[in-house]
Structures are given as structure tokens and as C-alpha cells.
Design a protein that fits this description.
2 domains, nine-stranded antiparallel β-sheet, eight-stranded antiparallel β-sheet, 6 helices, elongated
């Protein structure tokens, strides 16, 4: 190959590369903006501040998020507080959501795009209806969410398949029957009430002791520690009982970051949940908190009914340190006051959980389910000393071996 041929091939490669880059860039931008979509808002003049009720319906499923006493609540979960962060993000997203493309389809194609209104049936082709209502329950805006628009990622997904949802077909039920494509699949918009619950929960920090009482009392146990981060000890160890620190290590972090799956009906009967004969755990912290937790019998998805009661006792004044300098007093007093305020605020928040019965995953309460024997080290069995076996017996030493000489008898 001469120099001229090499230059021609090099230029051809550069041109091909630029062309490929331009096509790739064009493909990426084609879904972000289009001539037919024009970047118009899906819900222009969306009155986000007037929304006091969000209704989501799909098939037989429905969830209503309602604002009561300045707090968003989940109606289908006995007015339990809703996840305002997730709800607020969704409302802001709808306010700014833009149309990517106008989709030209006739009424007969609505089912194919899963845009059949819920009140008109349609089975699996039914749309998800989202309604935004004002404090008087009048509808402000509504939108039908249809089939998700997928695009191949170019690689096989470890979850199976390389297609990923990147958009969604939608329609505003205003009589015009216009279908649009948006560049957000809105995958989190579901009619599962438990999904919308505020999952903030209490946290046991700086554990000092944990006492677990099983029904009947025979399997109960108490672990304590002398200082923060210290080793746990079996408080009432009996003769021959030795704590297995490995088995007991989980108890040191019990309920340090629990989460719940769902909430139960306030009128749930104790005998049905097992809370009439619960496992009871009392956890005390170095900060002055006392948590009393009651666990019922396992129910659906291996989750346990749970109730919690919280108490707190905090020092009101600070004891000055030995040889404390006057210039340090103001700073230390302020730090003490700030710490006490945070503890009192934590107590106020956590006491609000007392009125509910929760369904909590087994992994969150596993240390509380252990019986006393599950925390103890296994006893080692004594091995027999072969040297002390019965004389002449199987495996025993021959006491006459060194007295009577061995006889060479004919075979």
C-alpha cells in the first residue's frame, strides 16, 4: 500500500466514524425532542398547590392519597401517613412533564396501547387512571397512563431481555382522544397502598440492654453491656451456660434500622395476630430510651405483627466537669441543650408509632425471635482416655506386657 492509498483509507474511516456518531446522536435526541411533540407540557397550567387528593385506579385496584390536617395520608391504609417525598416528586414531575411525540391512532387501537379507561373494562388493556382533585374533591386534572415504551439497550440484561422502559403512551381524557408519548415510564405509579406509606420508623441507638420474654418464660434471656460498644453479657447465666458471642452479636444491633412492610387494621383482633401471647422485648439505651416491642405470630410473606411503645428519660441539667474552665461552660451548656432537644424531638416522633400495628419482615426482628438455647455456646463432650480403658479390654493396655515375656509359639 502506497502513501496515497493509506491517506484515502484514513479519510474514509474518519468520514464513516463521523457519520456513525451523527446517526447515534440523532437517534438519542429523537426521543428527547421531536417536531410533532414540540416540547409541549402534558398538563399545562397544572395547579399543583391546589391538589388535595390523588386517586390512582387500575383495573380492580385503587389507592387514594388524601390531605388531612395538613398531612398526606393513605386512605386504604386507615389514614396512615403517606410518603410525602415520593408524592411531592410525582406531582412536580407531572407539572413539568413534556410531550415527545403525537401518536396518530384510532379508537380501535386504544386497547393495543393499554389506554382503555378503567370504567370501560378492557381487562389487561386497561389504562391506569390518575386524578388530581381539590379540597372539595372536584377533579382538577386527570391523565390515563398506558403501555410503556421500551427501547433495546443493545445488551442482554442480567434480569432477562435487553429492552428497557424509557417512555409511556398517555392520554388526557378531555374528549379529544389525543394520544401522546412522554419520555418517562412513570414506573412507580401503582395501585399498591403499601408502596405509598411513609416508611420512616423508630431506631434503637446505643443499646444498653435487651431482655426478651417468650410465652411461658422458659426460653427468655437478658443481655447487657457496661459501656457503649462493649461486649454483651448474659445477665442471668446459670451454671454451665456460656454465651456464644458470635450467636449473640446480632442482638447488639437489634432494631437499629428496622423497616416495615405494611400496617394492619387498627381493629385487628389480638388472638388472630398472636399479640395476645406475644414475644416481648424490652430494649434500653444509654441515651435514656426504653422500647417495649411485642411480636405476634408470623403471617403472610413471613412477616410478624408488631406493636411498639417508647419511653424516654433525659437529664435536665448538665453536671460541670472537674476543673471546667468558665470559657468552656457556655459552649458545653449549648451542646448539652442541643443534644437534649434532639432526644426530646426523637421521643415525640417515635411515640407517634405507638397507635399502629405493623407487619415487619422477619429479618428486621430475627434477633428477638431467638430462644435462650440459640445464644449459648455448645457444650463439648468429654472424650474417653484410651490409656485408662479397662485392663485387657478392647483397646486397653496389657498390665502383664512388661512382666511376662512374649512367647514365640509355632503358627
Amino acid at each position: 500500500m502506497n502513501r496515497k492509498q493509506f491517506v484515502i483509507l484514513l479519510l474514509a474511516g474518519v468520514v464513516a466514524g463521523l457519520a456513525g456518531w451523527k446517526v447515534s446522536k440523532s437517534n438519542k435526541e429523537s426521543f428527547a425532542t421531536s417536531e410533532t411533540g414540540g416540547g409541549r407540557k402534558l398538563l399545562p397550567n397544572f395547579p399543583i398547590n391546589d391538589v388535595a387528593h390523588l386517586r390512582i385506579k387500575q383495573g380492580a385496584g385503587e389507592v387514594n392519597l388524601v390531605k388531612k390536617d395538613d398531612l398526606w395520608r393513605v386512605k386504604e391504609r386507615y389514614d396512615y401517613p403517606a410518603n410525602f417525598s415520593e408524592l411531592g416528586d410525582f406531582l412536580k414531575k407531572l407539572q413539568d412533564l413534556k410531550i415527545i411525540e403525537d401518536v396518530q391512532v384510532g379508537p380501535s387501537q386504544m386497547g393495543r396501547l393499554e389506554l382503555t379507561p378503567p370504567d370501560k373494562g378492557g381487562g389487561s388493556n386497561t389504562a391506569t387512571l390518575v386524578e388530581f382533585k381539590d379540597p372539595k374533591d372536584a377533579t382538577l386534572k386527570s391523565v390515563l397512563l398506558g403501555k410503556k415504551y421500551t427501547r433495546s439497550s443493545g445488551e442482554a440484561s442480567p434480569m432477562g431481555g435487553g429492552d428497557m422502559p424509557v417512555g409511556r403512551y398517555v392520554m388526557v381524557p378531555d374528549g379529544a382522544n389525543k394520544v401522546w408519548l412522554i419520555n418517562d415510564p412513570l414506573s412507580n405509579v401503582e395501585t399498591k397502598p403499601e408502596q405509598w406509606l411513609n416508611k420512616d420508623f423508630f431506631k434503637v441507638e446505643k443499646l444498653k440492654s435487651i431482655a426478651v420474654t417468650h410465652p411461658g418464660g422458659t426460653n427468655s434471656w437478658t443481655l447487657t453491656r457496661d459501656k457503649e460498644g462493649g461486649d454483651l453479657k448474659l445477665a442471668d447465666a446459670k451454671e454451665g451456660e456460656n454465651l456464644d458471642t458470635g450467636k449473640a452479636s446480632g442482638a447488639g444491633y437489634a432494631l437499629s434500622s428496622p423497616s416495615f412492610n405494611d400496617v394492619m387494621a387498627p381493629d385487628a383482633k389480638a388472638e388472630e395476630t398472636g399479640l395476645d401471647k406475644p414475644i416481648t422485648a424490652k430494649l434500653e439505651t444509654f441515651d435514656g430510651f426504653v422500647y417495649t416491642v411485642k411480636l405476634g405470630k408470623p403471617m403472610k410473606e413471613d412477616a410478624y405483627p408488631m406493636k411498639v411503645a417508647v419511653e424516654g428519660s433525659f437529664a435536665k441539667t448538665r453536671e460541670p466537669g472537674k476543673d471546667e474552665k468558665p470559657e468552656d461552660k457556655e459552649k458545653l451548656d449549648k451542646e448539652f441543650k442541643d443534644k437534649t432537644s434532639k432526644l426530646e424531638e426523637k421521643l415525640k416522633t417515635e411515640k407517634s408509632y405507638e397507635k399502629w400495628t405493623y407487619l415487619i419482615a422477619k429479618w428486621s426482628v430475627d434477633p428477638l425471635l431467638k430462644e435462650r438455647k440459640d445464644l449459648l455456646a455448645e457444650k463439648k463432650e468429654e472424650k474417653k482416655d484410651d490409656a485408662k480403658a479397662a485392663p485387657g479390654g478392647p483397646g486397653g493396655a496389657d498390665p502383664l506386657k512388661d512382666i511376662i515375656p512374649q512367647l514365640n509359639l509355632p503358627k
